[in-house]
Design goal:
Elements: E1 2-7, H1 11-20, E2 26-32, H2 36-46, E3 50-52, H3 55-59, E4 66-69, H4 76-85, E5 89-93, H5 100-112, E6 117-120, H6 127-138, E7 144-152, H7 170-187, E8 193-200, E9 206-214, E10 219-225, E11 233-238, E12 241-246, E13 253-256, E14 259-262, H8 270-282, H9 292-307
Parallel strand pairs: 1-2, 1-4, 2-3, 4-5, 5-6, 7-10
Antiparallel strand pairs: 7-11, 8-9, 9-10, 11-12, 12-13, 13-14
Helix pairs in contact: 1-8, 4-5, 5-9, 6-7, 7-9
C-alpha cells in the first residue's frame, strides 16, 4: 500500500480522502494542519490514524510515502519543495506553482530524487471528459467547430483570504488551468492564438477573465468569474450537433442533443486517484495525462499575462 499524508484540512482535502477510500493501493495515514485541533477533528471524522499540528511533522514521518498538497496557491512551491526534500512523492493541487521557474524546479527535484510528482487536475481523468475526447477524435457529430466554456462562483470572501490576493489569488490563477489544460488534453493540437483579458477589483484581484483560443479550425471561448454566477458548463459545437457538459471540471454527465450519458460517482477524484495508483504500479514518476508539459503550458500563459507591460 502507498501511505498518503494530506497537507491541509482545506475543503478539497476530504474529497481526496473519500476518493482514496475507494482505492486498493492508496491509504490515507496522516493529516496535517497548522492547528492540531483542526487536524484531530479531521482525523476523527475521516478515521485517519495520525493527526499533526504542523506540516513539518508530516514531512518528518518516515512511514508516509506520498503527500497531497492542497494549501493556498502561493504556498504550493514551498511545501512541494519541502516534501520532495523529505523524499516524499508529491501530488500538488492546481495551480501547481506560481511560475515556470518554480514548477521546473519541482519537476527537476523530483527527477533527481527519483520521486513521483503530478499536478492534481481532476478534470482530465473524468469519464465525461474522455467521452468528449472520443467524440472529437472520431468525429461522431462531424468536425468540432466551437467550444464555449464558463466556470464561476459568487462568494464574498474575507479581505485576508488567499483568493483575494493579487496575482497569486483571483480567478485566473486559481481556475485558468481548468481551461488551458482541459482544452489542451481534449484537442492535442497546436494553438494559433491565445488571448486573455480580465477585470480586476480595486485591490488588483482578478474577478473575471475571458480566454479566447484558436486552432486552425476551432474557436474556443472561456469565461471565468468569482463575483457572478454563470452557467458553469462547456458546450461543444460540431457540424452535426452539440454536446453540453455541466460543471465540466467535475462532470458526471454529457448531454448530446437530447441524449444524457451519465457517469455517476460520489467522489469525482476517484479517477485521478486511480491514475496515481496506476502510475505507481507501472513505476512511472510522471503522469501521461496531467503531464509536465501540460502543467508548464498553463503556468506560462498565466505568468506571461501578469508580467505583460
Amino acid at each position: 500500500m502507498i501511505s498518503v499524508g494530506i497537507l491541509s484540512t482545506a475543503s478539497v482535502a476530504y474529497r481526496f480522502v473519500k476518493a482514496i477510500e475507494q482505492s486498493d493501493l492508496l491509504v490515507v495515514d496522516a493529516i496535517a494542519s497548522r492547528s492540531l485541533t483542526k487536524a484531530q477533528q479531521f482525523s476523527e471524522k475521516y478515521h485517519i490514524p495520525k493527526a499533526y499540528g504542523s506540516y513539518e511533522e508530516l514531512f518528518e514521518d518516515d512511514d508516509i510515502d506520498l503527500i497531497y498538497i492542497c494549501t493556498p496557491n502561493h504556498t504550493h512551491f514551498t511545501y512541494g519543495r519541502k516534501a520532495l526534500l523529505a523524499h516524499k512523492h508529491v501530488v500538488i493541487e492546481k495551480p501547481f506553482a506560481m511560475s515556470v521557474s518554480q514548477a521546473t524546479h519541482l519537476f527537476d527535484l523530483a527527477r533527481i530524487n527519483n520521486l513521483f510528482i503530478m499536478e492534481a487536475m481532476k478534470s482530465l481523468f473524468l469519464p465525461a471528459t474522455n467521452f468528449i475526447k472520443q467524440a472529437i477524435q472520431q468525429q461522431e457529430l462531424g468536425p468540432l467547430r466551437q467550444i464555449d466554456m464558463t466556470q464561476s462562483m459568487n462568494v464574498r470572501l474575507p479581505k485576508h483570504h488567499w483568493m483575494n490576493q493579487p496575482v497569486t489569488g483571483g480567478i485566473l490563477t486559481t481556475s485558468g488551468s481548468y481551461t488551458f489544460e482541459y482544452i489542451d488534453y481534449l484537442l492535442e493540437c497546436p494553438f494559433n492564438s491565445i488571448n486573455i483579458t480580465s477585470i480586476e477589483d480595486e485591490n488588483g484581484v482578478t474577478q473575471q477573465a475571458n480566454i479566447s483560443m484558436t486552432t486552425t479550425d476551432i474557436l474556443i471561448t472561456s469565461r471565468l468569474a468569482m463575483n457572478v454566477l454563470t452557467n458553469n458548463e462547456a458546450i461543444f459545437y460540431f457540424d452535426k450537433g452539440h454536446m453540453v457538459v455541466k460543471d465540466y471540471w467535475k462532470a458526471q454527465e454529457v448531454i448530446s442533443d437530447q441524449t444524457v450519458h451519465s457517469f455517476n460517482t460520489d467522489y469525482e477524484m476517484i479517477y485521478e486517484v486511480n491514475h496515481i495508483a496506476d502510475c505507481f504500479e507501472k513505476g512511472q514518476l510522471l503522469s501521461s495525462i496531467a503531464t509536465k508539459e501540460r502543467t508548464l503550458f498553463s503556468i506560462e500563459l498565466i505568468e506571461q499575462y501578469y508580467n505583460k507591460e
